[in-house]
Structures are given as C-alpha cells and as structure tokens.
UniProtKB/TrEMBL annotation:
Family: Belongs to the short-chain dehydrogenases/reductases (SDR) family.
Taxonomic superkingdom: Bacteria
Protein's name in the database: SDR family oxidoreductase
Record's keyword terms, sorted: Oxidoreductase
Enzyme category, top tier: oxidoreductase
Pfam families (UniProt xref): adh_short_C2 (PF13561)
InterPro entries named in the record: NAD(P)-bd_dom_sf, Sc_DH/Rdtase_CS, SDR_DHRS6-like, SDR_fam
GO molecular function: oxidoreductase activity
Assigned EC number: 1.-.-.-
C-alpha cells in the first residue's frame, strides 16, 4: 500500500512543490489549503497528471480546530491512513513589536504555531496506535535568529524551532519522528511580493549568490518524511543557501 502524506498550504509555493515531490515518489497526497479556488485548480492539474486516486484536496484553515478535524476526516475518506503530516502553511507580517496590531499578531501565531498543535491532535493518535509516523514542521532561518522588522514571525518560527524538540521527545517512544525544515529566502509567491531591489539584496547576501527554490525545500521535506532520514528526530534543518551560517 502507498504511503500517505497530508500537506498544509499545498496550493502554492513550497507546499505545492512538496505535493509534486511526494506524488512523483509514489505517495498518496492529501493537499489542504485555505485558498479553495487555487487549491481546486492545482488539485485538478495534479489529478490529471497522476491518478485521481493518488491525490485529494480539502479546503482547510489550519488555525481552526473544526476545519483541521474536517481535514482529518477528508484524509481518511480518501486514503486508508496517514503516515506523514507536513505542517507547511504559514504567513508573514512585517514590523517591530509595537507596530503589529493585535489581530495580525494573533493571526500569525495561530497560522504558524497553533496549527501544529491542531494537526498533531488530529493525526498523532492514529500514529501512536500504529507506532509509526513522521511529522515535518516548517520553521525558518527566522526561527533560529533575529531579523529586523520581523518580530512576530521570529516569535512564531522560534516557537516552532523549539516545539519540534518537545514533540520528538514525547512521540519518539511510539516510533514517531518529528523534524523541522528551516528555509532561507525561497522564491515562492510569499517571497516574490518583495520589491525586486530587496530580492537582489538577498541574492547578494547569500554566499552562493542565489535564493532557495521551492523544490529544494520540498526535497528536504520528503527526506525528513521518509525512511531515508530514519535516525533523525527533533532536528532543525536549514535549507538556506548559506543564510543561516
Ligand atoms: P506561500 O504564500 O507561497 O504559500 C503558503 C500557502 O499557505 C498558501 O497557499 C496559503 O493559501 C496557505 N495558507 C495561508 N494561511 C493558511 C491557513 N490559515 N490555512 C491553510 N492554508 C493557509 O508561502 P511559502 O513561501 O510557500 O511558505 C510556506 C512555508 O514556508 C510557510 O510556513 C513560510 O513561513 C515558510 N517559509 C517561507 C520562506 C520563503 O522565503 N518563502 C522562508 C522561510 C520559511
């Protein structure tokens, strides 16, 4: 039987690349995204390219408990069980602490951090029962360092960078591995919203003089979800074109 992965934020950027990566490796993919229109569009394309039995899409707000429970139900309707969860959905809001309004602060923390609590509650019980599973969270190099004008993102991704250790400790005895991928500046729709001059500055600041591509992160997510990374748990793994050194 094929392995099954649930990928959040799968309609765009890194999550879309990850969906393609897992499909190409023969996994079943349950795609989930807040953006229903875009999600349905990319789902249609992928289900035509692969077997419609191999891929499904569910609209989901990862910051909402009911929505995440509905996602778990959709995953079990489409596929027998879930082997891996990729917590990829995330948002970014600019500003120093005093410049960020309360709603924006709460929205980032809920989308980037609480979402992992919710998906874990929804999917980890079956992994505990089956004594196997992998969870890959998406932190950032911004979870490992401070950045100017990125206070809530630093707070959120920093929380994810330490949460992975707690999850790895608590679930290791059940054969469940939990790791983070920590992308550096990656050329996704989220990053392309920066002015070209800012993008050029980032390129010059990289020791490799380049930005990360979504496919680079997707390959690492696949590695961390698969048996290839069997001895690894509780790790933060930068994929960052040298930004985090
Ligand atoms: P993106 O904006 O291209 O894609 C994010 C996807 O998540 C979108 O399809 C969006 O609809 C979805 N999403 C947003 N809020 C959601 C919610 N509440 N529920 C469900 N889906 C939701 O972003 P990108 O760049 O692909 O980012 C993916 C992850 O990688 C995020 O966690 C981000 O913080 C992280 N990251 C990105 C970096 C970059 O430079 N692009 C660098 C470091 C980390």
């Amino acid at each position: 039987m094929n392995s099954t992965v649930v990928i959040t934020g799968a309609a765009s950027g890194i999550g879309l690349s990850a969906s393609k990566q897992f499909l190409a490796q023969g996994w079943n993919v349950m795609m989930a995204d807040f953006n229903n229109d875009l999600g349905q569009k990319v789902y249609k394309e992928l289900s035509e390219q692969y077997s419609p039995k191999q891929v499904a899409f569910a609209p989901c707000d990862v910051s909402n408990a009911q929505s995440v429970d509905d996602l778990a139900q959709a995953a079990h309707q489409a596929f027998d069980h879930v082997d891996s969860v990729i917590n990829n959905a995330g948002i970014f809001v600019k500003g120093a602490v005093h410049e960020i309004d309360e709603q924006a602060w709460d929205r980032v923390m809920a989308t980037d951090v609480k979402s992992i609590y919710l998906t874990t509650k929804a999917f980890v019980p079956e992994m505990i029962e089956r004594k196997s599973g992998t969870i890959v969270n998406t932190s950032s190099i911004s979870g490992l360092q401070g950045d100017y004008n990125m206070a809530v993102y630093n707070a959120a991704k920093g929380a994810v960078a330490n949460l992975v250790r707690a999850m790895a400790l608590d679930y290791g005895k059940y054969g469940i591995r939990v790791n983070n991928v920590n992308p550096g500046p990656t050329m996704t729709p989220m990053f392309k919203r920066n002015p070209q001059s800012v993008i050029d500055e980032f390129i010059q600041a990289s020791p490799l003089r380049k930005l990360v591509q979504p496919e680079d992160v997707a390959r690492t997510m696949f590695f961390l979800a698969s048996e290839e990374s069997a001895p690894m748990t509780g790790e933060n793994i930068p994929v960052a074109a040298g930004f985090a050194i």
